[in-house]
């Protein structure tokens, strides 16, 4: 037997309570059927024939490579320098930093990134990266296995992505910082 409310206020309270009960039931059903896994956001791009990525949180900008001024007699991994938001940044060859992987086509983009120590630098890249996600559990498992700056992470559809840990990359190379000699 349904009780009829006496006042408009009681009717609104009853309607709100019924709505909340329906929502709670719907959420319980969703919670039982689908447990959402935590994800790690990445910026994915090609490097030669392979897929590479950086953590999206490290990416600050994507700029055209033509903004770089060459530096004569610089180290092989230094492409040049550029101005970004009032700072002079080193533009570095990502392929060279990773040990000589070749590009499929000439780089056309610079990725301004946080190296992991609060310093910014730019890395050359073939194309503007696309944002996507990886399962956090796969990233953590790869981090444990990885000995160097590149972690091999498999996507949910079993494709391999090489996730670059910039902090490890620059710590192992000792390149590009203000205090580097």
Automatic annotation (TrEMBL):
Q: GO biological process: any one?
A: signal transduction
Residue ranges the record marks as coiled coil = 10-37
UniProt entry tagged with the keyword Coiled coil: yes
> Per its UniProt entry, which superkingdom is the organism in?
Bacteria
Which part of the chain is the CheW-like domain?
A: 39-175
Question: Which Pfam family, giving just one, matches this sequence?
Answer: CheW
Which InterPro entries did the record assign?
Answer: CheW-like_dom_sf, CheW-lke_dom
**What protein is this chain from?**
Chemotaxis protein CheW
């Amino acid at each position: 037997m349904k009780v009829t409310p006496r006042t408009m206020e009681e009717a609104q309270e009853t309607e709100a309570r019924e709505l909340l009960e329906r929502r709670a039931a719907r959420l319980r059903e969703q919670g039982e059927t689908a447990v959402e896994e935590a994800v790690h956001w990445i910026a994915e791009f090609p490097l030669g024939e392979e897929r590479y990525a950086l953590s999206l949180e490290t990416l600050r900008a994507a700029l055209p490579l033509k903004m770089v001024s060459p530096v004569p007699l610089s180290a092989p991994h230094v492409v040049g320098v550029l101005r970004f938001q009032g700072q002079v940044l080193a533009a570095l060859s990502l392929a060279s930093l990773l040990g000589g992987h070749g590009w499929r086509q000439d780089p056309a983009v610079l990725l301004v990134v946080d190296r992991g120590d609060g310093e910014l630098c730019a890395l050359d890249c073939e194309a503007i990266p696309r944002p996507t996600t990886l399962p956090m559990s796969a990233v953590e498992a790869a981090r444990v296995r990885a000995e160097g700056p590149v972690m091999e992470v498999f996507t949910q559809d079993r494709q391999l992505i090489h996730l670059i840990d910039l902090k490890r990359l620059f710590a192992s190379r000792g390149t590009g910082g203000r205090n580097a000699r």
